[in-house]
Specification:
There is one protein chain. This protein is of the alpha+beta class. It has one domain. The strands form six sheets. It has a three-stranded antiparallel sheet with strand order 3-2-7, with no helix packed on it. Strand 2 and strand 3 form a beta hairpin. Helix 1 runs antiparallel to helix 2 and helix 9 packs across helix 13. The protein is globular and about 60 Å long. The site of one calcium ion (CA) has 6 residues, from loops.
Length: about 475
């Protein structure tokens, strides 16, 4: 249990609506406790502390933008440097702002926050719209001999860049089309889901390979990632049940991916298919593929040798992102805090949580985990967290399949995404789109897309009464 004195500083720091409410409650409790036995005075249910001691208390549109509440004072300057390089636009080289140049020549966006707006989550393009911040991964069938990862398309590489510097051709445009798929709950209530179809136009560097596979992804929220990184491998291996020995139809698997820093296989944790082993590699990859910026980890620009012959550009240095800046953005991405849950003790929320467990959602979306002691950021060590993920790969059926494997992840497998903060996406990002490609327009649609290992849980959801479904959704909104 967290006590008032520990919580006050963060509540004061943020001065938000929830904070004010808690302060008022605390004030009330302070006087009340003179009279009554102060059994609950100022205590916050541990269940509300999604990120353990790193948890912040904010329900405003800035809810995802804060540093871990317990971040050591000596790290704050680096966090704020990271914040500024996450949010500001990078520019073409050469520029007077030499620390922020080197964008492109091929890129998708000028800043991290163009996709992770307010450190939150992105949306898919609407009907007939062209992709602006959507990430499209490309590969050929088979596995790279050295890394075991996907084989890049020979000309277009591992990712499609939909923008380019002036005088350089962008690789292609991506146009989205949505197809409605009708269904109904067991009680007869109708619903409609939308399935994405997309086409490449203005393909600029010659025909794409006939065998090319592609996968579209939207940016997830960037909160709590250092905590997920600090979950011991042994915990993940214990949660895994590759052969489904317990016979419950669920067979989570650990992804094993290439760690470029050590040149070895490592457990994958980040991205929609758990294809990145560390926040550092994920962030370095984002600088490179999403923004055309080189780092000490990925020193080559993102274009292929075929494309290089047609591209003239000025480098922003080698590397373009200095280690100081990279380190700051990595620290920032590791220590963005998860906001506390709301209304954990309300009867409807507790009922919803019970349903979440009884219909099998908690088998993959693991409510509670412990971080290990083995991390260079002591703030993240030994925390009891409520991430609602197992970080494992699950076969989610044909409906969600992208037909493109990544290391151990098949074309039907996805990593269970954490559900913490999910109820605040609407406030932070102004939309409620979910799943890897943003196809679900709300929480219910996200559940109704579940198939494969999650088919049974989905069917149980479809069979609930309308009132029960709403209770379950209220619980998800409280996360
Ligand atoms: C063009 C849009 C875009 C830009 C720009 C972008 N990202 Fe992302 N980000 C994504 C997508 C899409 C994913 C999921 C990738 C996947 O599934 O492999 C992601 C994933 C991540 C993750 C892993 C989150 C998780 O839950 O696994 C981190 C961390 C991250 N991005 C940080 C950054 C940083 C830092 C920058 C700037 C250097 C950045 N991103 C720029 C789209 C973007
Ligand atoms: C077999 C494992 C498994 C089970 C069981 C399961 N899920 Fe999921 N869940 C996933 C995976 C994997 C995804 C990501 C799928 C994708 O993006 O294509 C996901 C995505 C979601 C999302 C969207 C998250 C986001 O960030 O976009 C929500 C909400 C969700 N699940 C809720 C539930 C609920 C509620 C239940 C119970 C009815 C449930 N899940 C059962 C594995 C599971
Ligand atoms: Ca560059
Ligand atoms: Ca490319
Ligand atoms: Ca099992």
């Amino acid at each position: 249990m967290k006590h008032v004195s520990q919580l006050k500083s963060s509540i004061f720091n943020h001065g938000n609506a929830l904070g004010c409410l808690v302060l008022l409650l605390l004030a009330g409790i302070a006087t009340d406790s003179l009279r009554a036995s102060d059994n609950l005075s100022g205590e916050v249910s541990p269940k509300a502390l999604s990120g353990g001691e790193t948890t912040v208390f904010d329900t405003s549109k800035n809810a995802f933008t804060f540093a871990a509440r317990n971040l050591k004072a000596e790290r704050k300057a680096q966090f704020f440097t990271g914040n500024s390089f996450f949010n500001e636009n990078w520019v073409a080289a050469p520029a007077s702002t030499a620390g922020r140049d080197g964008l492109g020549p091929l890129f998708i966006a000028r800043s991290c926050s163009a996709c992770h707006f307010k450190d939150g989550r992105d949306q898919a393009p609407g009907e007939g719209e062209f992709a602006r911040t959507l990430v499209v991964r490309l590969s050929l069938p088979g596995k790279d001999a050295k890394t075991g990862g996907p084989i890049s398309e020979p000309v277009y590489g591992g990712q499609l860049q939909t923008r380019a510097l002036p005088g350089v051709k962008a690789e292609a445009d991506v146009r989205m089309h949505w197809v409605e798929v009708k269904g109904q709950h067991t009680d007869g209530e109708a619903y409609s889901l939308r399935r994405p179809q997309y086409a490449f136009t203005n393909v600029a560097y010659g025909a794409m390979h006939k065998m090319m596979r592609s996968s579209v992804r939207v940016a997830p929220a960037a909160i709590g990632l250092g905590l997920l990184e600090a979950i011991p491998v042994a915990t993940l291996e214990k949660l895994a049940d590759a052969e489904d020995k317990d016979g419950d139809g669920i067979s989570g698997r650990v992804n094993r991916v290439w760690d470029f820093a050590t040149q070895k296989q490592k457990v994958g944790r980040f991205g929609w298919k758990a294809e990145q082993p560390s926040v550092r590699q994920q962030v370095s990859g984002a600088f490179n593929d999403d923004m055309g910026l080189t780092t000490s980890l990925f020193a080559q620009e993102n274009h292929s040798t075929t494309q290089a012959k047609q591209i003239a550009f000025t480098s922003g240095g080698s590397p373009e992102v200095s280690d100081d800046i990279l380190n700051a953005v990595v620290l920032y991405s590791r220590t963005l805090a998860v906001p506390a849950r709301r209304d954990v003790d309300a009867p409807v929320i507790q009922k919803g949580e019970k349903l979440f467990r009884t219909i099998g959602c908690a088998k993959c979306h693991i409510p509670e985990l412990q971080t290990g002691a083995d991390t260079d950021l002591q703030e993240l060590a030994n925390q009891t967290i409520q991430p609602f993920t197992d970080l494992l790969l699950h076969d989610m059926g044909e409906g969600l399949a992208d037909g493109r494997d990544v290391f151990a992840a098949s074309g039907q497998e996805w990593r269970t995404p954490p559900l913490w903060g999910i109820g605040l996406i609407k406030t932070v990002n102004g939309h409620t789109e979910l799943l890897h490609d943003g196809r679900a327009r709300n929480l219910a649609e996200a559940i109704l897309w579940h198939g494969g290992e999650a088919e049974k849980a989905k069917e149980q959801f479809r069979s609930l009464s309308k009132a029960e479904r709403e209770v379950l959704l209220s619980f998800l909104e409280s996360l």
